């Protein structure tokens, strides 16, 4: 915690931390405001809601698969701080398009013909924004921080990200959609000025020709990254984790409305609980490992996560909805007799998930040469995005086949077993590298 406090007082870390947090806040404010409005204000069938939620997730993830290779090359061979400035400037334009879509939807003007395409276009733009910013936020840490500060810095970035997600999610559930439209543009402007304060981070290798091929470049990048067994296993484990995460985040709004009969404010609260839990897990694992990058606790963490998912599914199955199909508000949720079981299981999923994934990200920045860090993160993003698209497509297909959102939770729990196995293999590879 001392190291963390120390980093938050330093310009070599604070501007990047703030810029990343504002970007995560804006992503989630816009995305959740859009999804909540469409699920609660436009669609009236669980199948349509699942399809829209899955398409929105896929649109946001697609740029990670197509452009992460280029983003990694740029981050390793150009000044990272300069890229931050360009990316944050683009965010202002992207959010202006998204705000226009939200305002049209609020007014009921061409909701399906114009408002929805504008919102999805902005979501695609924010996916591009995050694709180019993603490698930088981790790759810049080993360049600006000391070796013993990297895990703490990674944990802070993860905790800050999820707390920002928390704030954006709260506002998305509680503020009117027209307010959200103005906020996303304002935050984008603030993020641009914060990004301008990030210290220079010049490349540590000579510039090479960039490969702009959308398919060859990702395949080659992933292939070049997988030579270190620890990095290979870390990427696979993270990818299965985010496959589970994709399913959960698609299902949460649907569970809230159709199973728990809860208002969008309560749906927002569920995502808030999840975000707080991940932030707590991200910070606590650093304390357990005492700054050492290790997968020691990863297998047991994701197994615990799977157990909590099963418990959460059981609670949802027993949930007693209000009579007459009424939507439960915040006060009704707080006084619901099963509230603590729901909060406890959902929080357990999140804390265990945070403890699982943070050390794995640290592997990607500490066990490769600094000249390759951004491309390693980019390769991870490519594999992660492919896994998340599979998770989103699977959730949509199962919904179309009549498999309920509650039943799909058990599928997510089963995938935790694969992540635990990969985490165990990673820990074995870690011990073998130390012994060798």
TrEMBL record:
Keyword DNA damage: no
Top-level division of the source organism's lineage: Bacteria
Topology versus the membrane: Multi-pass membrane protein
Xref: CDD domains: MFS_MefA_like
Major location category of this protein: membrane
InterPro entries reported in the protein's UniProt record: MFS, MFS_trans_sf
Record bears the keyword Phosphoprotein: no
Protein's recorded name: MFS transporter
Species for this entry: Novosphingobium ovatum
Taxon lineage: Bacteria, Pseudomonadati, Pseudomonadota, Alphaproteobacteria, Sphingomonadales
